[in-house]
Design a protein that fits this description.
Layout lengths: L3 H15 L3 H8 L3 H5 L8 H13 L5 H10 L6 H10 L30 E9 L5 E9 L5 E7 L4 H7 L1
Antiparallel strand pairs: 1-2, 2-3
Helix pairs in contact: 1-2, 4-5, 5-6
Length: about 170
């Protein structure tokens, strides 16, 4: 039992079902007797919650800070932390947007290739042998004829080796 509200429920259950006194029920649950008599001063926030839900539905991308400002403009004087708590309890969290990468300027059209050996493409393929050793294969392909000009297998292929093979 962590929260005082749960402790109050446990004490009430022991009193009702087992006929225990308040003192004994508090001793059994480990609750403080003072917390049994405590009544929260917090008022009902139903109209504030309703207003917050309404504003959040109108402006879906607004977070609790901007909604707090809108509430203030409408005359609802409320603490920012309370706005944040109500916002979170109502489940109005805004999903974070990912930045979209946009292309800068217009793309240059790809040149039309007519003759073999004008442009080659490189491709690295990785695999693993039955013994567990990894190896790579460098494939050099002609873009026009789609012919594999060279396949270089090795356990490690450095940049100098790639230049030498070209």
């Amino acid at each position: 039992m962590v929260t005082p509200a749960v402790q109050r429920e446990a004490v009430a259950h022991l009193q009702a079902c087992h006929g225990m006194s308040e003192r004994r029920a508090c001793r059994v649950t480990g609750a403080d007797r003072k917390s049994m008599r405590y009544r929260s001063q917090r008022g009902d926030d139903a109209e504030v919650r309703e207003k917050l839900r309404e504003l959040a539905q109108q402006r879906r991308r607004f977070g609790y800070r901007r909604l707090h400002i809108l509430l203030r403009r409408e005359g609802v004087m409320i603490n920012r932390k309370k706005t944040q708590r109500l916002y979170r309890e109502e489940g109005l969290m805004v999903r974070r947007r990912r930045n979209r990468r946009r292309a800068i300027g217009a793309r240059a059209p790809a040149p039309v290739l007519a003759l073999p050996n004008q442009r080659w493409s490189l491709d690295f393929v990785h695999d693993q042998m039955a013994s567990g050793r990894r190896f790579r294969v460098l494939n050099i392909v002609d873009d026009v004829t789609r012919e594999c000009l060279r396949a270089v297998p090795d356990t490690s292929i450095s940049g100098r080796r790639v230049v030498r093979e070209l």
